[in-house]
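Quick note —
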Amino acid sequence: MSSIKDVASLAGVAVGTVSRVINNTGAVKPVTRDKVKAAIEALNYVPNEVARNFKMQRSKMIALLLPSIWHPFFSELAYYIEDELDLEGFKLMLCNSGGKPEKELYYFDMLKQNKVAGVIGITYNDIENSVSTDIPIISIDRHFNKKITCVTSDNFEGGRVALRELVKAGAKKPAFLGTVTSVYSETMLRREGFVHEAKALGVPFVVYEEPDPIRDEEQYYNTFLQRHKDIDGVFAITDMTAATYIEKAKQAGIRVPEDVKVIGYDGIQDHPLFHPILSTIRQPVEEMARAAVRLLLKKVEGETLDLEVYRIPVTYREGETT
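Predicted structure written out below.
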């Protein structure tokens, strides 16, 4: 692979001149610039992006920090974030933390050293005091820091819609099935919306939660099924939680939707080969992803954003579980 020195040697100029041509900085005579460009083409030279960013002090790289790349919601989000960045002439650096706080902080240190232009991320951990705002950051759903702008779906309204749809489907005593994070998360508003609407309609309800992550899923679902046998509707905090509940309920002889109506939250199950197709509150993943990129790039340019939290409307998608 050719180096910048090889280009300089072939063009008969100094390395600094090649650098100025590549980065389009400084004065270079047209004849000299043509020689450098011809040498670059002849050698098929590809500039080192990280090195260029370091020299220019202006990166075209955006880091995406995710707790997992396996979850369908995160993978869909990453797809649209990368697409929007590409349209804007930026590149994506994917960082998979595995939900470990020490790994998240390691990535932040690494990102600062590599001069990334900014970070889009999701965290489940209490790392607020360790996250610097020296580089532009946009969070999604969960807050890194109260001063960091967050893009999310309208979780509160999603909870309200879920309760109304369960009642509409015939549920007389619905339950919220969820988890509580150690740090504040916009996802907690799903429960609040559910509870608010149940009280407004005078509907008896149950809230069943455990700390996130659930240490013993088998016990979590079995305990719920044993304690709340009169429940005829479930609003789960995520589609994955809903899917697991449906499986556990089936094992316990409970039919969905005949005995219990179920609604999830995310909208990750789009393929018709999955059965039953889950009724769910669909997050506008593409809109969230593109909005996060646009807001981050505004921060990169030094603009001040109008809001601390940008909430995007959700939709209800009826499936076979209500």
